Amino acid sequence: MSSSSRALWTDSEWTWDRILAVHDACEEVARDELELSTYPNQFEIVSSEQMLDAYASVGMPIFYKHWSFGKHFVAEQRSYQSGQSALAYELVVNTNPVINYLMEDNSMTMQALVIAHAAFGHNHFFKNNYLFRQWADASAIVDYLVFARDYIAEQEVQHGRAVVESWLDSCHALQDYGVSRAPRPAKLSMSKEKDRQRERSEHLQRQVSELYRILPPGRVEPPVADRRILRRPEENLLYLFEKFSPDLESWQREILRIVRKIATYFYPQSQTKIMNEGFASLTHYEILNRLHEKGLMTDGAKLEFLAGHSSVLRQPSYSDRRYGGINPYALGFAMFRDIQRMCESPTEEDLRWRPVLRGARSRDVILDAVESYRDESFIRQWLSPKVIRDFRLFSVHDDRYDSSKYYVTAIHDERGYEEIRENLAEQNLRASQVPAIEATDIDSKTRRLTLVYTPHGGRKLGGIERMMQHVQRLWNNYPVVIKDDQGYMLGSL
């Protein structure tokens, strides 16, 4: 049993001195034993109301105003006050330095758990994962949000709040289509955005006017091939609207750009949920256990930590009323722990499945996985037969021709491992989360925009009417049509 003589805290009350001492102790373990590389940390002690407010504004300390954030706030508040959800666990912002929210109602043990989880687990992931390195500019996002907030507030004064909010509604509705996945995004810069703002808007308007200009009488129209506005299909619809929507005002194009830039910043988070939460859970588990071994945490605090840890990693069975899908914390943690096991004490099954792990150092393999994968590729590479069995995973096929019939196509046995792994990886592809829609043609005479939907996994496109309304608004109410990849008309406005 550990002694409490060296413990950093012995009761539930937190103080700033204790928080700083715990941070330093966690940092020592993270740096020297877990070999983590992190940004500097910044801590904010917030009330439950402030935490709810941070939740509502997608966790950012500074954000422009919009009615949807208030709606989200009310929903979270009702859920929290009725006991249906908790806020005590974590909220962390990918900036440099990383901003960690600690709720004032937390016990000191929960503060320590959040520090280990967020300030070192998430922090290392933000800094080192390739998607975050390429797509999320942690050093500039806060300044850019200040620019966005001030700019949108100015437009509300100039054009009216209702007009700007209506425009933002449509931008937000289509923000999942504001990411170009092939090219690396440009770095964010508030000063450069302000310097280039007027020049950019004037240039764009001249460019768009030239594309859609009406030929004078008697002038020979150039060949159709020479008048094509889109040379190739465009998946980034917000970029398309910003650059090519006819007759938009400069502030409308600028808001399109703002929403597109912010959507790009958040793109890595949607693609690494399982990995990010799993690695952060592994990090807090290892750090706090190590603090207990050193005598820096009492036995009582360890029991409280394990209770919180277990509640977060709970994975209800599919038949449980509490089941809400696969818990990303649980699956990610199990996979990282399994990598440790396979490296340190592999079975014959492990060596058949991953022979490259023979003699490998578990810390090297884990850190390489953190840096090199996203959820989809991580599952394909590292979802082992043991984890599949432990989670009792199985695959179900929904008969599209008979909605009353479902077929179990694979279970957690030798024949089912590969199919289950493939199906779970597919669920974490962007194409499974966001319908594959791209712009393929713009008619320079009628200004009609043509969209094409490519089905993924036989899924039908739902909510077409509402989506088309937003698309048409951003296309400045000119004609819009959407077809499937076979040319069948799905909708038009």
Overall mean pLDDT stands at 84
**How do the helices and strands follow one another from N- to C-terminus?**
HEHHEEHHHHHHHHHHHHHHEEHHEEHEE
Report the strand count. 9
**SS summary, helix count:** 20
Radius of gyration: 26 Å
Q: SS-based structural class?
A: alpha/beta
Q: DSSP strand (E) fraction? A: 5-15%
Largest sheet, strands/sense/barrel: 4 strands, mixed
So what's the overall shape? globular
Terminal Cα span: 72 Å
Describe it.
- This protein is α/β, with parallel strands linked by helices and 493 residues long.
- Among the domains are: 16-129 and 272-308, no CATH class; 313-428, no CATH class; 434-492, no CATH class.
- 53% of the residues lie in helices and 9% in strands.
- Strands 6-7-8-9 form a 4-stranded mixed β-sheet, with helices on one face.
- Strand 6 (436-442) and strand 7 form a beta hairpin.
- Helix 13 packs antiparallel against helix 15 (362-372).
- The N and C termini lie far apart (72 Å).
- Residues 219-226 have low confidence and may be disordered.
Give the SSE layout.
Blueprint: H1 16-32, E1 41-46, H2 48-56, H3 67-81, E2 92-93, E3 98-103, H4 108-128, H5 130-135, H6 141-159, H7 161-173, H8 190-211, H9 237-244, H10 250-271, H11 273-293, H12 299-312, H13 328-344, H14 348-353, H15 362-372, H16 375-382, H17 385-390, E4 395-398, E5 406-410, H18 417-427, H19 430-433, E6 436-442, E7 449-454, H20 464-474, E8 480-484, E9 489-492
Parallel strand pairs: 1-3, 7-8
Antiparallel strand pairs: 2-3, 4-5, 6-7, 8-9
Summarize the structure.
With 493 residues, the chain is an alpha/beta fold. The protein has helices spanning 16-32, 48-56, 67-81, 108-128, 130-135, 141-159, 161-173, 190-211, 237-244, 250-271, 273-293, 299-312, 328-344, 348-353, 362-372, 375-382, 385-390, 417-427, 430-433, 464-474; strands at residues 41-46, 92-93, 98-103, 395-398, 406-410, 436-442, 449-454, 480-484, 489-492.
